[in-house]
Amino acid sequence: MATTKKLRIYFSGFFNVPPELVQEYGAFDISLINDLPLFVDPFLLFNSEKDQYRILHEEMIKYMMFLKGKSGAGVSNGLLKAWYFFPEVRQNWMGFSKSGNRGRGLGNDFAKALRSNFIQTFKDFGSETTTHTHLGKLTLIKDGVGKDQISDFTCNLIKGFLAEYTQAFAQQYVPKEKLGKFNVDKVSFDYETESWKARQFTLPRLGNDYVLLTPVDILTKDDAWISHNGFIEDFSQVLSCIDNEQLRHKVENYLAIKLPIEPTKEQREKAVEQVVAQYPFLMDVYVKLREQAADEATETSAAKIAVARELFVANLSLLIGVLDERTAFFKTPTSSYEEGMKRVAFLKHVIEKEDGYRLFYVKGRPISRESDLQIMFKLTWFASEFSADAEVNNGRGPADFLVSYGSNSNTII
Description:
Blueprint: H1 11-14, H2 19-25, E1 38-40, H3 42-46, H4 51-71, H5 77-84, H6 108-119, H7 147-157, H8 159-173, E2 179-190, E3 195-206, E4 209-210, E5 219-221, H9 228-233, H10 235-240, H11 245-258, H12 265-278, H13 281-292, H14 294-326, H15 336-353, E6 361-362, E7 365-366, H16 370-379, E8 387-393, E9 398-404, E10 410-412
């Protein structure tokens, strides 16, 4: 099907670039309608064979050590904002936003958690004796820094690289009329003046903002290689790797005391966190295990990205093609109720009568995450004048979507 202007979703479509060129360059052909659940895993930078990536990781750790050095001292509100606060890098259109590309960014809560962790739980950060230093380590306790925050932080700390990477592609392949000059803030840190510097780049222009591409080989989906979920799931293996037999039994006994009989997932998670609070060295045991299996990190992340590309790009493009060719899905009615009902009916027809159900399978397995299905649904509304917002709660419990046209016309799906 020939792609019309109205049916543009991806970077390649918006900027008149063949999708094959984006893929050959090594970047992900991002949606410019809604964030995709992808993010940069700092472990992939650490573990890369590319010198440039490893240097990026070293620079990230250097900045973290700068922050750690400032955590114990009194810091003014101005410097706290200058050093610890970062907006979400929404221009790469990746992350955990269910609607659009605007997340919360890193503000006061992140700054407080990070400073507190450096003083207490992660006071050995940067001086580990059995492992290297990893940003992912900061996510291993639930009341610490979450994976979405580490994702935002990582993107901010490599924003200069992402801008250079995108500029090189854009100047070669993107039509000049679709480019603009933008001052990008916080792209390099001057340790002498202890301040961030901005720099001007020529980048793809989307409205009044710019767009950033991200290399596929530093991306993953869902969880990073070093993650809180992985730590909890692998905790039995962590315990078995404690060399000192007496200490291992001591830790196992402490865990047994904290665990109720037939614990739920939440109770086990809480028990593990209590054990880790008592024996923080267990985090380094887990990190060491992940380092020893580092070769799997690249392979695992590549497989996740391949699934994401098939689901959110290849299959979704096919679904949109069928909807556009065989239904009136993209013709906007006059009310949100009609919009919602007709589009659901069109989707139902394509899924049930046009073999559309096949597009919700990847490698023979159906989509299992509700959030992935919601993103696919959201991306099919891109041509409408109506808004379609996911997981809205207006007092009657969360709905999958709220379709609206202004404040006077809205329908819950």
